[in-house]
Amino acid sequence: MSHNISAMSNTTPSIETSASEIAAITPAHKRALSYSTTIESLFNQVMNTGMPADRIIGQYFREHKKHGSKDRRVIRESLFGLFRWWGWLSQLETNQKHTTWFQQLSACAMLEQHPWPDVTGAWNDFADWPQTRADQTTLDNQATLKDKLAAYIALSAIESCQITQLLPQWFWQLCPVDSTEQYALVNAMTTRPPIWARAQTLSTAKLIASLKQAGVEAKTSGYFADAISLGHKSINLNEIEVYKQGHLEIQDLASQVIGQICQPNNNEKWWDACSGAGGKSLQLHSLMSQQSTEFSGSITASDIRHKPLEELRKRAKRAGFEHISVAPWKGEVLPVDANAFDGVLVDAPCSCTGTWRRNPDMRWLDDASAITDKPMLQLAILRRSAAAVKSGGKLVYATCSLSPSENEQIVKDFLSVTSEFELEPVIHPFTGEQFDMLTIWPQQADSDGMFVAKMRRK
């Protein structure tokens, strides 16, 4: 993943406020000021280092264990909310830096509808909004994205704000979206990301019953028999027994589409060529296990990084999956035998634009090069990995990108230089339509975005 922030230096400057410039009159003011200082520091770390926000905030909480659950929630949700709405918030400007910052916090809290009136009320006081504008900005729980735009314009007096500004301009250039779908896409990208899971070694019904007993909202997906929706609220997985025992695996619904498209049989040999920490390797194993008690197939997982492969080993052990082995990439040499696999999955490195919903900071950290610098690598990986597919075998190419240059174009370029493979049509699991190549959009079923194409060796 590319985090090139040099191009953003003029549009996303670090925020610099001074606590000494603010008069904290009440205890609520003092708490709100303390929160704002922490959030400001974390925001600037993300912008200045280009490190993912979830990594920076995770490290902060590990080093500051004094924070209770409310503190952590206020800090985390405010930080991610700022990135979600930064396309609008970055346009705010006053004569005082600290006033601009509190206006950004205050407006973000309004748009996110944060349930901390003591904190948000203090931020509103520090923001020093003109009273006539502040009175026009009440939003209820049914507020739409259009309602939020209207409220933000009323509060900020920035008449030029548009819904499409919530994603960077280069995204719209490199990820063309039909005008009729732009609103729905931005609406999905500005809502809390869902938590999807997959039943792995227990039935879906037993898992849902167990989760509900533990106080976790859970229901079936309606699309895949083993997919489980865990809602949109944060969950401490370390307190969930079925997760600790390997019966449940967290995996986004769009990611689950990939394994379903692979359609692995339990007597087949599969190679997950870019496995990362192995979410799709585990899914392949689970799908194969569900078919019969006699498991005669195997899965080999490869990656150039050793740490994710170690994580895969732990996850496979926790689930009791004995048919997954690891073969690290070492240079450009194929880490597995050629012409040996019934199926090869190439989940290629990409810009990850499809995951912006859960990583809203990335839309402001990356620039167009996050997309434009990947295609040569993606094509090289696909061509190299294809050598492992045996005659009649399946080759599945996937990314979590929404850009045609990383998706359809790679498949077309691959097929133009080899006559050994041909496309197989795939059915969209959420609409039932048939496509030569499939893009899952975040607004279609409350998920991330993914691309997948399925080919077969002649």
Description:
With 458 residues, this protein is an alpha/beta fold. The protein has three domains: 6-166, no CATH class; 195-251, Sun protein, domain 3 (Alpha-Beta Plaits, 2-Layer Sandwich), CATH 3.30.70.1170; 256-457, Vaccinia Virus protein VP39 (Rossmann fold). It is 43% helix and 13% strand. The chain has 20 helices and 14 strands. The chain has helices spanning 27-49, 53-63, 69-84, 86-89, 97-112, 117-127, 131-134, 145-156, 169-174, 179-189, 204-213, 241-244, 253-262, 279-289, 306-319, 362-365, 369-372, 375-386, 408-417, 442-445, and strands spanning 196-199, 219-220, 227-229, 248-250, 269-272, 298-301, 324-326, 341-347, 389-399, 421-424, 426-427, 434-435, 438-440, 450-457. Strands 5, 6, 7, 8, 9, 10, 13 and 14 form an eight-stranded mixed β-sheet that branches. It has a four-stranded antiparallel β-sheet with strand order 2-3-1-4, sandwiched between helices. It has a two-stranded antiparallel sheet with strand order 11-12. A hairpin with a 6-residue loop joins strand 2 (219-220) and strand 3 (227-229). Helix 1 packs across helix 3, helix 1 packs across helix 6 and helix 18 crosses helix 19 (408-417). Residues 1-14 have low confidence and may be disordered. Keywords: Methyltransferase, RNA-binding, S-adenosyl-L-methionine, Transferase. This is RsmB/NOP family class I SAM-dependent RNA methyltransferase. S-adenosyl-L-methionine binds at residues 303, 347.
